[in-house]
Design a protein that fits this description.
The complex is a heterodimer of chains A (about 150) and B (about 325). With about 150 residues, chain A is mainly alpha-helical. Chain A has 6 helices and 3 strands, in the order H-H-H-E-E-H-H-E-H. Helices cover about 50% and strands about 10% of the residues of chain A. In chain A, helix 2 crosses helix 3. The longest helix of chain B is centred in the first third of the chain and has 35 residues. The two termini of chain B are about 25 Å apart. Classes of the chains: A mainly alpha (about 150), B mainly alpha (about 325).
Chain lengths: ~150, ~325
């Protein structure tokens, strides 16, 4: 099934979000399972009448993300949730970050995106910050190169 | 014509806040800059919205169904408010656009915040941050309620112990000082009047600097905080934007400016920029612009009320 990225259009993005929700559902079913479960077992417990192949696809994708583990049993696999509550939260959070273009305006991010020249500048600043790490902090009058006053 | 010409002033006067939006970061403590700029932004946006509304009311005085009494279409009254219907219609159109933008911004904010909170809702709500197992490096402060810090293991792994402490202190400062309120307020102000967009960007930068200074105070080392910011930005840059098309912009972006500021001296705690710095006159200009905005809006509103009263047989 489509794993590789296609040029993004609206429909594709909507489909991706749907798949993300399915991943969370499948993972939830697996977490409630008493033990390793087959894809057929998962399919029965999912409401929405998904095709067997779709369930297997979702399970494989979760496996690639290390959210589930699998053991071979005969000709098929037995699946088990590897992710705990934190792992599930991480999947959900990632879905929010992927689908909300506006996220940085709402959730205060630690760092914003860099401009093209910023990387070089940051590395120089990082060097100067690391050099002086042995000195006591605060009140250091030393100017840090040309970067200090630009802006 | 009379006093109603002043109705257009508050729509352009936010331009007087441009110099202080640029200069505040160099001459003011980020806390003071955030508060000052947010104050200017809210006052000017309020006046802009009021004036758009009044222009709409005045300009459509002749249109049936306007919210004014019937005697409003009296020829004498019309002479006193010589506005074209087109101006009024345009104002109402702009007001509708503004309201739409405000509603969309608020709805988007509520949706993102709710989704993010739901994502971590199942994790035990201790005091500590929610550390999520994800290779992608990110760190966010989720506003609302008690607020929550969300950090990925991908971000934590790239930082040293003391740098992690600085990152968490930074996010905690966002929550403690309710920075999202300043951000939302100036964002809505920029929806009302697009001339206030640079001011919103300046406030966004100031809140980051504010949180940086709080973090530096909490971990007791400005250099550690500077390193945390720089390292986190580089890690996130490489993870999310591997091939950003480069265009020549020699001015450093927000992150290097934050790092440089942390490596520089501690900002002084004054609430108003010193008069001998360029920021002093800039702040005065913005204050004057705000005052004229408020007076114009007030003046026009009062005049409209008086005309309305005179035109209404009671």
């Amino acid at each position: 099934m489509p794993q590789e990225r296609e040029p993004s259009d609206g429909g594709f993005r909507a489909r991706r979000r749907g798949q993300g929700e399915l991943e969370a559902q499948v993972l939830e079913v697996l977490r409630e399972a008493p033990g390793p479960a087959t894809a057929g077992w998962v399919q029965q417990r999912l409401d929405g009448g998904l095709a067997y192949t779709t369930v297997v696809t979702i399970l494989s994708r979760l496996h690639a993300k290390k959210a589930v583990s699998r053991t071979r049993s005969g000709r098929s696999y037995h699946w088990q949730a590897a992710a705990d509550a934190a792992g599930l939260a991480a999947l959900k959070m990632r879905r929010v970050l992927d689908s909300e273009a506006d996220r940085d305006a709402v959730l205060a991010s630690f760092v914003s995106a860099l401009l093209p020249h910023d990387e070089v500048l940051l590395r120089a600043l990082l060097d100067s910050a690391s050099d002086g790490a042995v000195q006591p902090a605060g009140g250091d009058p030393e100017r840090d190169g040309p970067a200090h006053r630009e802006g | 014509m009379g006093v109603f010409v002043f109705l257009f002033l508050p729509l352009v006067l936010p331009l007087t806040a441009l110099p202080i939006s640029r200069l505040a970061e160099q001459h003011l403590h980020p806390r003071a800059a955030t508060r000052l700029l947010t104050g200017f932004g809210l006052a000017m946006a309020g006046c802009s919205a009021l004036c758009l509304g009044l222009l709409g009311v005045l300009g459509t005085a002749q249109i049936p169904g306007n919210p004014l009494p019937d005697s409003w279409s009296d020829p004498g009254v019309r002479d006193m408010v010589p506005f074209h219907v087109e101006v009024g219609a345009a104002s109402i159109g702009m007001l509708a656009v503004v309201l739409g933008a405000v509603a969309r911004t608020l709805a988007g904010r509520l949706r993102v915040a709710a989704r993010a909170r739901r994502a971590v809702a199942d994790l035990p709500a201790g005091d500590g941050p929610a550390v999520l197992p994800d290779d992608r490096p990110y760190a966010y402060a989720l506003p609302g309620g008690p607020g929550r810090i969300v950090v990925s293991t991908g971000m934590m792994a790239h930082l040293a112990e003391d740098e992690r402490a600085a990152l968490l202190a930074h996010e905690q400062a966002h929550l403690t000082h309710r920075h999202h309120r300043y951000l939302l307020a100036t964002r809505l102000a920029a929806c009302v009047n697009p001339f206030l967009r640079p001011l919103h960007r300046a406030v966004a930068y100031s809140t980051e600097r504010w949180a940086d200074e709080e973090a530096a105070g909490a971990v007791g080392d400005r250099r550690t905080t500077a390193r945390a910011v720089a390292r986190a930005a580089l890690v996130a840059h490489h993870a999310v934007l591997p091939g950003l098309p480069a265009f020549a912009d020699p001015a450093p972006g927000p992150v290097p400016r934050r790092v440089a500021a942390l490596l520089g001296p501690v900002p002084s705690g004054r609430a108003w920029p010193p008069t001998d710095s360029p920021a002093g006159p800039a702040a005065m200009l913005a204050a004057a612009g705000t005052a004229v905005s408020a007076l114009s809006a007030l003046n026009a509103a009062t005049a409209l009320l008086l005309v309305l009263k005179a035109a209404t047989p009671l």
